[in-house]
Amino acid sequence: MAKQLVEFTKLDTKKILINPNLIETVEATPDTVIILNTGRKLLVKESISEILDKISD
Questions:
Q1: CB count in 10 Å sphere of residue 8
Q2: Are 43 and 51 in contact (CB under 8 A)?
Q3: Beta-carbon neighbour count of residue 18 at 10 Å?
Q4: What is the pLDDT of residue 3?
Q5: DSSP result, the chain
Q6: Is the pLDDT of residue 1 over 80?
Q7: What is the pLDDT of residues 8-47, one digit of tens each?
Q8: Residue ranges of the domains in the chain?
Q9: pTM as predicted
Q10: What region does 25 belong to: left with phi over 0, alpha with psi -120 to 50, or beta?
């Protein structure tokens, strides 16, 4: 079962909480971009592997 909310860090160092069920894709371009199923894109400091660790149980 997925976690309720996961904390990420935006490039301006602000912390945000994301429902992992809303994550559609994650890209490294070289910044890490989280694309939500709503179409919204978020740039975060975490790497793809860190994101995977955070959303995995």
A1: 19
A2: no
A3: 19
A4: 63
A5: ---S-EEEEBTTS-EEEE-GGGEEEEEESSSEEEEETTS-EEEESS-HHHHHHHH--
A6: no
A7: 999 999 999 999 999 999 999 999 999 999 999 999 999 9
A8: 6-55
A9: 0.87
A10: beta
Quote the CA–CA distance of 39 and 57 in Å, as a whole number: 25
Q: Amino acid letter at 5? A: L
Q: Which residue has the tokens 């890490």?
A: 32
Q: What pLDDT does residue 56 have?
A: 86
Exposed e or buried b for every residue in 20-53, given b needs 16+ CB within 10 A? eeebeebeeeeebebeeeeeeebebebeeeebee
